[in-house]
Amino acid sequence: MKSEPIILLDMDGVLYDFTGAALAAHGSSETIYHHENAKGVWDIPMLLGISQEEFWRPLDNGAFWDKVPLIAGAQDFVANLRRLAPVYFASVPSRSPECWRSKVAAVYRDFGVPESCDRILLGSAKRLLAAPDRILIDDNDKNVKAHASGGGVSVLFPRPWNKLWASAFYDYNTQGHRACVMTPVDQLYSKTLMHMKLLLPEGE
Ligand SMILES: [Mg+2]
Question: What domains sit in the chain, N to C, each tagged with a CATH number?
Fold first, then answer.
């Protein structure tokens, strides 16, 4: 029996601005990705020149996670995806139990109760979710690769810290002009939605 497609939607970097909040907590900002050697680099501690432990120290608590902002346009993006297929939120929390609580509360607050209640998948083993007809939208190169290797369908959400970084900059390197302006995320939502409509045309 062929199963119905579902969408597995990553949270941090796709719906929530974890990177901006984490960089701000370390006195930095996303302009760090304007440097040539930072483009496509996932490892924020490396970019900041600090250890993993130093990086997570101010972040691994409920006060930080409760302040990670929803990205403008994320609610419309999810509403449009829900017209194509059921949407499940798939996210890897930090070690703090407070992060788990905060993520569930954020989904309830931003994406609705009861429609989100049984559709939150938290845990580090995202790869176990890979299966045919499961479409993962994620900003992490490794997650996307593992999902595809496990038989799922992967859609890499373009951000400055992954392989599609060039799409995450507006007019970057167009006609020799080296612009360094980040593409508004709602434009990335529109592009991803068009891609999803090609994958799920019958959902329209
Ligand atoms: Mg992510």
Answer: 6-203 (3.40.50.1000)
